[in-house]
Amino acid sequence: xxxIDKAHHPDCLLQALSTTTSxxxxxxxxxxxxxxxxxxxxxxxxxxxxxxxxxxxxxxWTCDMEIVDPxxxxxxxxxxxxxxxxxxxKRKVGNIKLQIAVAKLVILRxxxxxERRLLSVEERWLRCTLKKLILGLASLERTIARQRSxxxxxxxxxxxxxxxxxxxxxxxxxxxxxxLSVNGQIITNQKGKEDAFFDSYSDLLGxxxxxxxxxxxxxxxxxxxxxxxxxxxFMEEEIWKVVKxxxxxxxxxxxxxxxxxx
Length: 262
Hints:
Number of helices: 8
Strand order of the largest sheet: 1-2
Mean pLDDT: 78
């Protein structure tokens, strides 16, 4: 056991592991500090192909009737739908990795039994069904990983699942900020990091103040441009055109809903 200064690092434990095939002893450092990634809602592309999807959306698309502000109401509707679809998706599909592992274990038992005796008709049917199930679940797992990876140049038929998972995990790790250094102080908790970012950007943006000087565009000979149409409200046709032109498998905002949902 390797000793460390417990007075300065009370939540750390440094211990030696076995040497195994080498004469060097690796050291394992464990920390009590846990970094929890906040789970975000992700609309899965395969949900639309499952039975009962529209019914699940209708059940989740609910809001308090007392809310009259349209923007607040839409936000509540999307939040409630996201929660309902997440729970519905878990019940509908379940744990894909666990199902594949269980199916492989049962098939392995049948393989062992087939070496000693002939399988019955029911056993052969179950073995064949489990193999088809594994193919379907593997394809579904590959689809989820492909959507997470966000690599546009990969073809649909590419079966390099390991690449998809590596890219998806890499993006998740890259987007996570474990700690910040502010004035020589290391900040690791979520609230402290949020405050540090807010204060930093507030200092960069500054505050709006009245200008003491301005430019005389007429004296400079610069013609004025009529920008009054920019103040006009968006037309319904313009909004629908933007929505329909969005990629079906990409989320334009932070709510997690992709283009195919709209």
